[in-house]
Amino acid sequence: MKIISTEYSQVLAARIARESGCDLVDVKFSRFPDGEHYLRTGSVDNEILVVGSVVDSDSFVQLLLLIDACEGFSPVLLIPYMGYARQDKQFHAGEPLSARAVARGLSSGVSRVYTINIHDPGVLRHFTAPVMNLSLAPEIGAYLDRCGHANPLILAPDGGAAPFARIVAATGGWDCDHLQKTRISGDEVRIEPKSLPVEGRDVVIVDDIISTGGTIATAAGILLSQGALTVTAACVHGVFAGGAYARLIASGVARVAASDTIEQACSAYSAAETVVNGIR
Ligand code: R5P
User: How are beta strands 255-259 and 175-178 bridged, if at all?
Assistant: First the structure.
């Protein structure tokens, strides 16, 4: 198998190639004068893994073009971060199911699809190719173990993330709990106060996505006011929209860590090994 990626997932693709012993295919990316994307791949064989996160419209178009360039070679698609996956409900008449539109578009021409900690596994039904969702919860657990916290409390910001937090916590046999979150707007949440044994402890809030940082900044404020020694934020997908990283640090979070499903300066653990094991 060869590995090929869009511009948006080059580091992860290189790590997958190294981890699996497969070759990485070189791709030239450019734009036409009117702004349209152009790309040209190096030599592609049968059995190719196409890697591309959807972080915005450009990354989506580039991924569609790359899949098309691999047509005829039964490409397997890895979408490390699938943007638009959170828009899977129609709140008002006339709205699209954006997750469905993206899933359908990316299913065409691929033999299989892998996603990583997709926000809602229900979205997987919209793919028209066989699909599997991989989880980085054990990878985050291993990272926290390396950080060497003594007796940390692992917290999910809401009930939806609780099963994920439990897998992270199982790595070190750490305590685990979850908060109760209500979303007020795109970047504002309300978190119900809850009495937790945080006094003098390192608390790690784990979540699938950090987008605006509102969820974790709000939770961190509550935990620090309850006497937590430190608050760390660890997620799979570090979107960090609109100054989210600074917002988290300003709220008192001591350390922010994400994976390389979206390549960020704070990508502290990689999805590569999980992907290679999952595909094998
Ligand atoms: C939502 O349910 C997700 O699991 C995350 O909690 C959410 O996407 C985080 O968003 P933000 O960082 O904007 O609060």
Answer: unpaired
Provide the whole-model pTM: 0.96
Residue 45's identity, in one-letter code, is D
Distance 22 CA to ligand 1 centre (A): 35
User: How many A from CA of 119 to the centre of ligand 1?
Assistant: 9
- Residues 161 and 272: their CA atoms lie apart, in Å, by 22
In terms of pLDDT, which residue wins out, 36 or 195? 36
CATH number at residue 33: 3.40.50.2020
pLDDT tens-digit readout, 215-244: 999 999 999 999 999 999 999 999 999 999
| Nearest Cα residue to atom 9 of ligand 1 | 210
DSSP secondary structure of 10-40:
HHHHHHHHHHHTPEEPPEEEEE-TTS-EEEE
| Residue from 164, 182, 209, 251 whose mutation best tests the ligand 1 pocket (most atoms within 8 A of CB) | 209
195 falls within a domain: yes
Q: For ligand 1, which residues put their CB under 6 angstroms from it?
A: 157, 160-161, 187, 189, 207-215
Active site residues: 181
| Structural domain boundaries enclosing 150 | 137-260
**Quick check: is 155 in a domain?**
yes
DSSP string covering 146-165: HHT-SS-EEEESSGGGHHHH
Number of domains into which the chain is organized: 2
Q: Are residues 19 and 113 in the same domain?
A: yes
